[in-house]
Amino acid sequence: MDGKIVQVALNGLESILRQGEQEAKASGIVNPYSVMIEECYGLDKIEFLQSHENQEIYQKAFDIIEHFFGSEEEDGKIAPDQNAEQFQFGAQENVPMGGFQF
């Protein structure tokens, strides 16, 4: 597929998503266009473009995914505990009292 066609399509898609983002902020709902894109497997197609040989297409696809489809919330289950100077990763400690015997 011609790289210029893909770039024009991604630019148009980004414009549509920006418009949906403005509508979503004004009405307090989720971006309706990003939902539609996800429902018709468009996000999979955009993710596929991240492996495109053209660097500009890769970057545009990456930027669209990060801006419009990136998760803004951290999952508390996988986020590390943070103290003043370092991160603490914890796991359930189910180690037998005598240790493991192999």
Assembly context of the chains: single chain
The total beta strand count reads 2
Task: Report the span from N to C terminus.
Answer: 57 Å
Q: What percentage of amino acids are in beta strands?
A: under 5%
What features would you highlight for this structure?
102 residues; elongated; single chain; mainly alpha; 4 helices
Provide structural commentary.
It is a single chain. By secondary structure, this protein is mainly α. Helix content is 54%, strand content 4%. It contains four helices and two strands; from the N terminus they run ααααββ. It has helices at residues 3-27, 32-39, 42-48, 55-69; strands spanning 81-82, 87-88. Strands 1-2 form a two-stranded antiparallel ribbon. A hairpin with a 4-residue loop joins strand 1 (81-82) and strand 2. Helix 1 runs parallel beside helix 4 (55-69).
Give the topology, please.
Elements (H helix, E strand, L loop, with lengths): L2 H25 L4 H8 L2 H7 L6 H15 L11 E2 L4 E2 L14
Antiparallel strand pairs: 1-2
Helix pairs in contact: 1-4
